[in-house]
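question for whoever is on the cluster today: can someone run the full assembly for these? three chains, 799 residues total. i dont have access anymore since they changed the login thing
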Amino acid sequence: MSAISIQSVTKRFPNGFEALKGIDTEIQSGSFTVVLGPSGAGKSTLLRLVNGLETPTTGEVRIGGEAVDGHKLRHIRSKVAMVFQQFNLVDRLSVVTNVLTGRLAHRSWVGSVFYLFRQEDMGIAREALSRVALTDKAWSRADKLSGGQQQRVGIARALAQRPKVILADEPVASLDPVSSEEIMTLLREICDRDGITVVVNLHQVELARRFADRIIGMNSGKIVFDGSPEQMTHSVLHTIYQREGIEDDNSLDMALAYA
Amino acid sequence: MTTASTWRWPTPNGWPPLPLVGGVLALLAGLWLTAPIVEVDFVRLIGSIGRMVAFAGQMFVTPDWEYVPQLLAKMLETIEMTVLGTAIAVVVSLPLGILAANNATPHPVVYRVTRDLLSLMRALPELVWALVFVSAVGLGPLPGVMALAFVTVGFMGKFFAESIEVVDHKAVEGVRAHGAGWLQVRLFAMLPQALPDFVGTVMYILDHNLRAAAILGLVGAGGIGYDLVMSMRLFQYERLLLIALSIYLVVTALDRASDRLRSRIIHGRRA
Amino acid sequence: MNVHDLKSARRQAEPFPPKPRNPAPVWMAATLAILWLIVLDLDISFEALAYGVEDMAEYFGRYGNPDFTNLSRYLELMGITLATALWGTVFALLVAFFLAPLAARNFAPNAVTYRIARETLNFMRAMPDLLLALIFVAALGLGPLPGALALGVHTAGFLGKFFAESLERVDKGVCEGVASTGANFPQMVMYAGWPSIMREALGYVLYILDRNVRMASVLGLVGAGGIGLALHDTLRLFDYGQSAALILVILATILIIDYASAWLRGRLG
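^ ran it for u. tokens below:
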């Protein structure tokens, strides 16, 4: 059964830029999918559409059979967690409180506007933090942590939502190689152990090859490749990273030589 | 688990942080203690709603159109007082601002003295100084302009000094490295950098001064305030309506203009 | 600029492009002309001013002997003034707390509430507090309560606008981070909004408290209690000794509060 279904989705921004030019795809439940593509290919827009941070110009996104639209946004988002490139934590709140924001959609606003949480939510937060090995930093302020640690808090927040799907928008683009490895391993482990569907946008071809079940290649708003890591040959990479109007791209060849 | 309750705060012990609790309790205690002094009485407040409505009802009268020419003249006078008072304050505040900026002042003692002088000048509201100046130079717009300029220097000098203190130090060092003198460093490296801030400050203060000028007439220091109080005392609601409306319109217009100008300066979109 | 351009530039120093016209002198001249017209129109006679300044020294000399015989009464009045300012500020804070998120473009649930909240704040700000005090005195009778209400309404407009502008500067990513968890409007405000602007907001509240103490000390002029009325009366009676004492009491209080709030702000910042 497919967790995410994207049906003939296009997205045109108010400034006229067409980020997505007709996307059709299904993402299987419990799979680990990596979306590859050059900057500006529409990878981020695609993920943001799935979480409802953007609305498609035409077409429809469905999560587990339910359409993503304005009325049920809170309900949909409670099932679809998001991990961001810049972590997007609330700097001045403690790590625990940041993780607890993952519970907000499951609770009415009455207690939460006073920062009051149920005992069970605290349990969920503690569990999520131990999953990302940050229990000792629980009471630190979020902005006192290193980049890799902040991203782990971001993942803990996603876990606390008890989601069906985790979307990660270039989760390692601001991190050093060691932290990147940690984060990707963590996401893979979450996918395998909890059966959560994971969709990750990446820039690193090598990481994609090693972690993904399935790779979707995007270029200028269209899907140009869809297959397993083994099927992603050198010529496929060429198609994915091809730049418009440049036939003979030296930089591209050099960049892909070691990929 | 330190608390057995089902609800808890995201803190190690489940209780809100102590400074926060202390602060809120202190504030509540302060409010509770001062309530009788301020005569906060909810019965009276609710009882007055009727009178408020009645008062608002009285405002629905045919405006006294014959009064309009005089209103316009008084409004013009108010605006003129605002502009003149602010302009005088700008001229006085610039040098004082330099003296009161810790990176531009000639001597720490000068800095301290100027800072204290400025805070003395802005300590009392325009209206108090207007009272004093009216007794000194007589009725009319002159004491009003003096009061406005006096208090404005206190604020503007401080704001100018603060904008000078945050200018980029690298540009200052660059100019100094080329052998510029004391005054040259301040004129060519500091003031140009602080200028956008200055313009923002002037707009903000112009806005503030217009409101202040509108009420200076209360003590006979010129402007629309005198008519405002008189029509209030004499229950001339047909005039009061026009006055309140005109104050609202002028203040809002200036508010919008200054907002627009400031955001244009801050975002660097200069025409 | 390509390589070819660089080569030709090296060959000969090109003359400057024509200098853009600098309108500054025109603006300066216009400003000065307007100021001159204003001076003429307001009928400000420099003679009067000169006499005034001459007399001023003598005039201010009369304030030389502050008369502190009624000090306890003045301190009591000052206490009322401070209490008025406190209540006004808390009232403003409450109103602004609820209105500001609605008046911040990135938090407002929809365009209509945004517009309404913005216009409400603008309206509150546009009404001078003394005018409001006059109205509230008419409705509630004399005393500090109408003063506190007037201060509250007027400064709620300011505080709400300041808060809303700070909220609009909250990092977009942080808002999206909280929004992506499915938080609703009140939760967004409490988790992405207020924690991010806490420090700024406290600074604004202190600034408004400071301002309200100054204003509360003149509200007495329109019968809204406090020390202002006493000052007005002693000045009317040409009682310079008592006036001086009153002015000194106000001055001292305001300076103390000034230093206290600067200290507090320094500790928070």
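summary bc i know u wont read the tokens: Chain B has a mean pLDDT of 82. Chain B touches chain C through 56 residues (CB under 8 Å).
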